[in-house]
User: Fold Sugar ABC transporter permease from Antribacter soli.
Amino acid sequence: MAVTTSAKPTPRLGGPAPRAPRRVGFSQKLSRWDVKISPYLYISPFFVFFALTGLFPLIYTAVVSVYEWNLLGGQGDFVGAQNYLDVLDQPHFWKSLGNTFSIFLLSSIPQLFVAITIAALLDQNLRNATFWRMGVLIPYVVAPIAVSLIFGRLYADQSGLINGLLTVIGLDPVAWHSDRFASHVAIASMVNYRWTGYNALIFLAAMQAVPRELYEAATIDGAGRWRQFVSVTVPQIRATIIFVVITSSIGGLQIFDEVRLFDTGGLGGADRQWMTTVLYMYDVAWGNQRNFGRAAAVAWMLFVLIVLIGLINFMVTRSISTSGPSAPKVKRAVTRRLLAEAKAAGTGRPAPQPAATTTNTARRES
Assistant:
């Protein structure tokens, strides 16, 4: 017969009796659950809304792209990659892709340079600085439809204000709706008008966070405004530049409102000379083809293209950002310079100057 022993520990001779295990109350368990679960509950609304508005449409679009899915007939047979092959065989797709990249380059590149220039000007000591800083945001508040309608009238071929001004100064009017490159310039000007001020405020917020002692040290070393901008401002806001470049690339490849409302037809011109990929996708789904399967294939190919371009931009801008002097090194150099000046002021001896400053001083004396 087996003998069972008690699991309770036996007390030592002459020692205190073992304390009974303390039960954890429900309130303490609830407090532990609160500490562990509450952070996830706080961030859950973002993931829930992202799953509903972002992840589910993305997956559902991938499902639609492998079926014969018509506007009137609904879901048809499974066709696999046939929708993708049909889209790649259509010449309008490749023309729309070229138009998208052309408008994207004409809008994003000048937009970034103008935005960072405006931000640098607004970062100076200006009268009514708040008024000017909020004024650059007014174009962003205007609805895209209103901007497209106004610029469509400005760039009218016969009675547009732009051609009227060109005629006054003795130049020939431009066929904004017939010439391919001219139409791209006109549409890019709409995009730049709306988004330049928005990006300028982002750059301005980053410039406001740059330590002022860096500019003071650069001024002591004899650096002008341009040298301070290149050597101090740009290296300190490189993370913001990466962010703006990536977001501008994503938005530039999804242009739709401006090209849709540039003329009354809304199909990118008679020869599709300014039709973008998003407008082509709209035409495939709701135009003559009315094929949701092919439109979903276009959407997924555009999604993959945007991801690839975003990764390329991220790697290029990140390699550029890591090649220059980092912020901690600059701050340590400035701190050493200020300490040297403070010691020199206390002892009456001149502070040691960097090699570049000493060379410049010798040149000025000679």
